[in-house]
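new request in #modeling-help
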Amino acid sequence: MAKPFQLRLLTPYQSLFEGDVDAVIVPGEHGEFGVLAMHTKFVTTLEPGVLRYVKDGQTVRFAVSGGFAEVHQSDVTVLADSMERPQDIDTARARESRDRAQKELEKRSSMEPRQVHRWEDRLARAENRLKLAK
Amino acid sequence: MATLKQIQKRIAAVKSTQQITKAMKMVAAAKFRKAQEVVIQARPFSRELMSTLGRLAAIHTEVREHPLVVRRESVEKEDLFVITSDRGLCGSFNSNVLRAVEHYLLDRQDRRDSIFLSTIGKKGHRYFKRQQVNIRQDVDDLLDNPIYSRAVELAEDLAERYTSGEVDRVTLVFNEFRSAVQQIVVFRTLLPLEPPEAGEGDEFVDYVYEPDKTTLLDHLVRRYLANQIFMNILESVASEHGARMTAMENATDNATEMIQDLTLVYNKARQATITRELMDIVGGAEAQQK
């Protein structure tokens, strides 16, 4: 059994979780990475994706939309721009956001690169939410 | 002297106004509590972000030399972000901010053309539309339901403006929350960004960085800017509901006082009428006896 360590999941809206877990898997810049206790000190940015932690053999999943994570030897802190449990995802809003972004991106050739980037980000966030909500 | 009927009508009018102010006070109180809760919920995130950046700023010069942190020698062009409310009836909440901005512009009359206003909140937007000022944008989707990703986008816009040299300074003007009865207008410089200081007793350990150190520190600096915008908006919203609650409480108290005064006038007038009628009767009776 893995040694438990402290995990904190924070968003600008609330603290979602604080407690001991056995492992956590985070959607990092270079793909997903897993953290067990005594991991090396480490900071990474997050991509839209699924964050999972394992506690007492149970896996709990969250949709994450970006942010960063800080790993110390005995604790991990995730500062996400937003994070939701699958049951808390507002699918109607996510679908609306996805459709809007897809529609805007049809005109990408006439848009500034920054604008395109922004809609792509929104699309990625919405799709990530919908994927987990299903 | 007003007739009895007129006084009665006024009392009824004040009473119905009082009912409205009382209801508005209750609504504002509920919203105030909620807004305060939102601020409290947002604090752990904000604190952690600050402490991480503070620690990294202490060991990496990249933070101090970041394009968003470096100060310009002279400020010529600047952005003012003015946070007001969408709705009125909140005492001097909006007028205090608007007046402070007016003073700021007056003091810089010589370079007034190089100051660009952006508004968050309908009240400020409506006010400045009628003034001789440069309005850059109205951010109309952050007050009602503050979404962090919108604050991030706004921060990206500002960062772009600052790094490209379009502006040399970005300042936020808003009501800082002191208590439900006290809000203070503050000018907070967003850019150049002031990186947080490391806390006492912080451990300065270096990390492994993903994707790489420069990208990560840049990400943190930008998120810190977004977080400042987000937190200050939340604070202004809490201030607004506090100000409205206080304003409506005062209005309700004033109405009570007014009703008391009017009731007194009404009773006096009634008394006077009765006295007059009695005099008439007594006078009539005496005349008959003679």
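bot summary: Chain B has a mean pLDDT of 92.
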